[in-house]
Amino acid sequence: MSKVFIIAEAGVNHNGDMQLAKQLIDVASEAGADAVKFQSFKAEKLVTKTAKKAAYQSKTTDADENQFNMIKKLELDMDKHIELKKYAENKGILFLSSPFDLESIDDLNKLGIDLFKIPSGEITNLPYLRKIAKLNKPIIISTGMATLGEIEAALEVLKKNGASNITVLHCNTEYPTPMQDVNLLAMNTIKQSFQVDVGYSDHTLGIEIPVAAVALGAKVIEKHFTLDKEMEGPDHAASLDPMELKEMVEKIRNVELALGNGIKQPSVSEKSNKEIVRKSIVANKKITKGEVLTEDNLTIKRPGDGISPMNWDQIIGTIATKDYEEDELIQL
C-alpha cells in the first residue's frame, strides 16, 4: 500500500494572527503530517455582505456578526502566504491552501503551489472548476453536501479541461459531524463509481473515523486541528488539539503497516510459532513394531514438527515400523 497522504488542516484556525499560523505549522510538522493546509480567499469575492453564518459558526463566534465580517477577519494576504510557505518549507512540511475564489487560484498558482485542494462548497462552481483544471496540476476535491451526480458532473468538467490526477474525498460538512451521518462506506461507492483514488475529509470529533477510513482504503486524510479548542473562531471546537493530531498520524501509520500486501501467508514474526502451536500425530500409548496404527493407539498433540494431522486417514491402518513410547512422534 502506498503511504497515506495526511493533510493537517489549519484552515482559518490562525484567527488572522501570523504567530498562531506559524505555531500551527510547527504542530503539523511535529505530528508527522505530510502537508499543512490553510484557506485562501478575499471576503469581497467569496460572500455577500448579507450572507448568514452556518449554525455551527454562530455557536463559536459572535452571533450578531454576519458571515462576511467573520471571514474578513480571517483573510491572509499574499505576503503572508509567501511567509508561511517559506516557514513550512523550513519545517519540512508541504504548504497547501484551498482557494475560495478565482483570484485566489491565480495567487496560489503564482506562489508555486503544485497541488490544488478544492473545498466542498466549490464542487458546483463551473468557472472555478474550469480554472483549476486548466492549471494541469494534481487535484484533491472534497464532496461534502454533494450527490453522486454532482460529483460526476464536477469530475467531467475537471477532466474536459485538462485535469488528470484527481483524488476525491468523501466528506460531511457539519462541524462536528454526527457519527450516524458519516456514511464512511460512501467513500468506496465513489471509488467504484468513478475509478478514482479516494480519501476522507473528516469533521467528526476524535480520531477513530479517519483511522477507519484508512483501513477502508483512503489514500488521503484531511483533518482540522487547532492549538486550543477553546479559542474563539468557527472551526476550533471541532478540531483536534496538538496531541490528538500526533496520535491520529501515529495510528494511521500503524494501520498502513497492518494492512500489508494482501497475500495470505505466514509472516516472518509468526513462523517460529508454527511448530509450537500446531500438532502432529503421536502415539497414544506404547506401540510395538509391526502393530497396526489405529484410532485407539494414536492421538494428536503438540508440537507440530511431525506428521501433520491432515494425513490422519493415510496413517490409520498402516503398520508401525518401530517401537513407540507414549507421546512419541509417529514417523513415516
UniProtKB/TrEMBL annotation:
PROSITE patterns xrefs? AFP_LIKE (PS50844)
Q: Which Gene3D superfamilies match?
A: Aldolase class I, Antifreeze-like/N-acetylneuraminic acid synthase C-terminal domain
Q: Which InterPro entries match?
A: AFP_Neu5c_C_sf (IPR036732), Aldolase_TIM (IPR013785), NeuB/NeuA (IPR020007), PseI-like (IPR051690), PseI/NeuA/B-like_N (IPR013132), SAF (IPR013974), SAF_AFP_Neu5Ac (IPR006190), SAF_PseI/NeuA/NeuB (IPR057736)
Provide this UniProt record's keywords sorted from A to Z. Transferase
The record's GO molecular-function terms, alphabetically, read: N-acetylneuraminate synthase activity
Q: Which CDD domains match?
A: SAF_NeuB_like
The AFP-like domain is annotated at 280-332
State one Pfam family annotation. NeuB
The EC number(s) attached to this protein equal 2.5.1.56
Name assigned to this protein: N-acetylneuraminate synthase
In its UniProt entry, the species of origin is given as: Gracilibacillus marinus
Q: Which gene encodes it?
A: neuB
